[in-house]
Amino acid sequence: MKYLLVCLISLQVIGCATTQDVQRLQTQVNALNSQVNSLKDEISYIKRSADLMESTIESINASIAKLSVNQQFAVPQSTAVHSVKPPDIAPSTSTSNEGRKIYTGPRGETYYFNSEGKKVYIKH
Asked: What is the pTM of this model?
């Protein structure tokens, strides 16, 4: 923009531009500089806001990572209807001729998990 002013002043010196033309261009340049500075301030504010949001997200993710599964899904004691005792015996496993893992439950039932993760009982 300074280049434009120099050109216009040069034109004024050789008689091709008036003082009013130079002043009008100087006013327009000042207005543009003001707008540029305002945009720089807005960009700076947006960057600070983005940094703050990023640190907040990191803090939230760290808090979530610290929570245990029991804390995430715990039922308050006052609202619990009854407690469920986990089985004492883990199911035993074997492999079928189709390459599936076959599980035998505590009551002798046999089953496997299909590709959708659902338990499929095997009929004998």
From this structure: 0.40
